[in-house]
Amino acid sequence: MFDWINLETVAVALAVAYLVLAMKESILCWYCAFFSTAIYVWIFGDVSLYMESALNIYYMAMAVYGYYQWQRGGITQEGVAICRWSAIQHAQIVSLIVLASFVSGYFLSVSTDAKLPYLDSFTSWASVVTTLMVARKVLENWIYWMVINSVSIFLFIDRELYQTAAMLTLYLALSVIGYFAWRKTYLKQNPDSSAASPV
Question: Given this model, what pLDDT does residue 139 score?
Answer without folding.
Answer: 96
